[in-house]
Amino acid sequence: MGRADFGKLLVEEVTRIDRAKVSKRRERVIEGFTKDRHPRAIIKGRPYLVVNSNDYLGLRHHPALLAAEAEASEQYGVGPGAVRFISGSMKVYADLEEAVAKFHGREAAMVFSSAFAANLAVLFSLIKGQSKDSAVGGETLVISDELNHRSIIDGIRAAGLAREQKAIFPHLEPEVVAKILADNRGKYRRGLIVTDGVFSMLGEFQDLKSLRAIADRFDEDYPEGVWLIVDDAHGIAASGVTGRGTEEVTATRADVLIGTLGKGFGVDGGYVAADQRVIDYLREAAATYIYSNPVAPGTAGAALAAVKLVAGREGRQLLKKLAEKVTFFKQELAGTGLQMAADSSHPIQPLLIGKPNEATRITGELFQEGIMVTSINYPVVQKGRDEIRIQLAASHGRAEIEELVEKLVKIHR
Ligand SMILES: Cc1ncc(COP(=O)(O)O)c(C=O)c1O
Fold this sequence. Notes:
Layout: H1 3-19, E1 32-33, E2 41-43, E3 46-50, H2 63-76, H3 84-88, H4 91-103, E4 108-112, H5 115-127, E5 140-145, H6 150-158, E6 166-169, H7 174-183, E7 190-196, E8 198-199, E9 204-205, H8 208-218, E10 226-231, H9 246-250, E11 256-260, E12 270-274, H10 276-285, H11 287-290, H12 297-311, H13 313-333, E13 348-354, H14 356-368, E14 371-372, E15 374-376, E16 386-391, H15 398-411
Parallel strand pairs: 3-14, 5-6, 5-7, 7-10, 10-11
Antiparallel strand pairs: 1-2, 2-3, 4-12, 8-9, 11-12, 13-16, 15-16
The protein binds pyridoxal-5'-phosphate.
The site of pyridoxal-5'-phosphate has 13 residues, from helix 5.
């Protein structure tokens, strides 16, 4: 098979994806945002209400963040120039890491170009060392929720463990984790329980309290203990009175916490927060940190401003506003006959549609009506559980939520 044939095969694959109606590449191109209190995206000159963004607190247009970004770019230039340990480590990264660690009450934190990059490297490095000389061996049992995010799955896959070292537990069923740990006693040096904090399809919180108790119960049964690793990309800066996410909602603490700066914080980049010894090790081992640039200094500056803002009074106010918007949306929906796929208290509100074509028809018609919202279809969700994923934000006005519900009712038959 020559290059031309492989090219043909690629066309065939894209055609297959198109036929299955799961294509992603025809992205809507946003030309800008309106400049009002409740910014709308402008597409082909027309404003659209955005209810499919992870910018839960509406921070991406915040003047303090824009100013911090400009200031950091002015001070350091628009790019890092090199990876951190070569010559790209600017004070703004160190300040951001200190702020992230403080926000989560941890000894230290480390910033990556994205949470995806953080998960890949953190999981790989805690599962096994980077080389055969590493003191960190690969006798690890990994226990992962079946609906964990792709970046967690890829991080585990990258470590190339034997099948029996990877246990997948049924979604939100912590008691199975206890059984897995009991059954594998004496076989491995450490256990890693890995989970999303908030699951983004239904806005559900993981039962971290039970997982924490299980990790503690079996800790002594594994020579290097049982660790709880939580990726709370959708929870942090979106839920909990102070925005500490699933840890706050469940009153639990993970051993290693991964977060993103690109959702609730409104900026970009990812991070891990943990004990100093974990972070020291990761700076030596994490490939996506050692061999890949950090976010731009301007982005780090904006993220630092975002973390400080969320930690302060304005953050509390925005989180309260966001929670009020969630309550208001639920009130508006009550009595309309529209049904939710789950009773979520998170700004992710999944509207149950059930049929894939119907979900796509509704989101298409909503777009005609000036609303950007996304349908989530089988196989991402179970058959018959096709949904429209509504993502509320503190920056939505009540009038906009009313408009959303009114149009949903009109278009949904
Ligand atoms: C649970 C989870 N982890 C990681 C990510 C990736 O975040 P980032 O965009 O910072 O790579 C996401 C976003 O989709 C997510 O939902």
